[in-house]
Amino acid sequence: MTILTFPTLTRVPQQAEWWLQRRTQDFASPLTGSVQTQELPGSYWRASLSWPPLQEADWRTLTGFLSALRGRAGRFFYGPPHARAPRIMPAYTTPLVMGGGQSGTSLSADGFGASQTIFHAGDFVSYDTPGGRRMLHMVTADCASSGGGVVAIPIEPAIREAPADNAPLRFGQPGAPLGCVMRLTDDAAARVSVGLARIGSMALEFEESLT
User: Fold this and answer.
1) Which of 41, 171, 192, 199 is the most buried (most CB within 10 A)?
2) What range does the domain containing 150 cover?
3) H-helix or E-strand containing 57?
4) Strand, helix or coil at 116?
5) What are the angstrom distances between the C-alpha of 106 and each of 75, 146, 151, 154, 205?
6) Which superkingdom, per the lineage (predicted)?
């Protein structure tokens, strides 16, 4: 399946909600009422976006792209539009994943400047996997590099498919956009509201594709 690239519009979303959808299950005791909560695997990113009044060229471009997706069957790359880069751009040469087969909620990377703050809580990082997927993680705490430019990045969700050693690490630097593989949540998402002046408005909801 070809993964499409979201088109570039002249207007950014007016409102953007981006969150990690967790999966949990509660078990309540019928005797005491106490509740145990189990965390299930398969957390995924969700987004809700709305655009301000769009000129005809923009809403035609967007509806054409959405039609090409063929509803929920299509896949595309997209990342949080309100957080395309870290709050402070770290010094780096070529940031790379350091070591294959990583798992859990910490990602090791190198290629950064020595002994400096690299990311802050709330920043994002992403990478491509050997299976051709693009994974997106949120940084959960401030982190700094070692004297050799190595950093252990605390992330959520946990690594689902490990990147290869020396895979390029994306964090919003020029030429390396953030994102993951998304799909529409509604087959009817390509509809647009157009006024008499041919000004359009649109609202969309996406979710990460786990397959």
Assistant:
1) 171
2) 92-156
3) helix 56-69
4) coil
5) 27, 15, 10, 5, 29
6) Bacteria
